[in-house]
Each structure stands twice: as C-alpha cells, then as structure tokens.
Design brief:
Blueprint lengths: L12 E3 L2 E4 L1 H13 L2 H8 L3 H14 L5 E4 L7 E4 L1 H21 L2 H9 L5
Antiparallel strand pairs: 1-2, 3-4
Helix pairs in contact: 1-2, 2-3
Length: 120
C-alpha cells in the first residue's frame, strides 16, 4: 500500500542489515495467503520457486515464531499457509504501512512530487 506515482512511501523493518519485512516480502505473504502454495505464489509474482522459497525462509528466520508453514504432499494435502503469528505480523505491518502513507500525504509530499524531474 505505497503511495503511487513518481514517489513512493515504503515501510521496511530491518533485522540488522537484512529486511525482516518490507513491501516485497509482504507481497509474497499476500500471494501465499491467496494461493495456498509457495510455488503458486511464485508463479503469481513471476518469481522462481527458489527465490520465493529463500524469501519465505528469511521470513521464518527473522521472527520469534514461524510466519509460513508448509505441508508436504502437493494436491489437496500439500501447500503453504500463514501461521496465526504470520497473519498477525502481516496485518500489523499493513497497519503501520497505512499510517505511514497517510502521514506522508500532504503539501510537503505534493511539493516533492512537483519537484521531480520527468524521466526521459
């Protein structure tokens, strides 16, 4: 939920120098929640399975509880889903993101947008 246009407001929480959660990882969690699968989420986001798996692993390592749980088996028995902790973490991130976007909106942000040199 970034402000669209020539400038964007993004929220990123770091664990040391590595992002624990940011816009990209939040999109991964949204896709897993929507598709019920890491591989389907990768296809949805046009990411390789390896890339999305590394992001999920990074998320699970960054927090005090797992964010995504997987079930082996494929078909109706396999897949992935957000844990209750992961759901709360994503909802909290989205709430902070919404407040940051709302706080950024206004004359200062509008001035910065007007001051951006057009691309090309």
């Amino acid at each position: 939920m970034a402000i669209d246009g020539p400038l964007k407001v993004n929220v990123q929480l770091l664990r040391g120098v590595e992002p624990a959660i940011g816009p990209g990882k939040a999109l991964v969690l949204d896709a897993i929640e929507r598709t019920g699968s890491i591989s389907a989420a990768g296809r949805d986001l046009k990411m390789s399975y390896r890339r999305i798996w590394l992001l999920v692993d990074s998320l699970n390592q960054a927090w005090i509880e797992p964010v995504v749980e997987t079930r082996v088996g494929g078909g109706t028995t396999g897949g992935a889903q957000l844990t209750p902790f992961g759901e709360k973490m994503l909802a909290s991130y989205r709430a902070i993101e919404a407040r940051m976007v709302a706080a950024a909106a206004g004359p200062d942000f509008d001035w910065l947008i007007d001051a951006i040199k057009p691309e090309g």
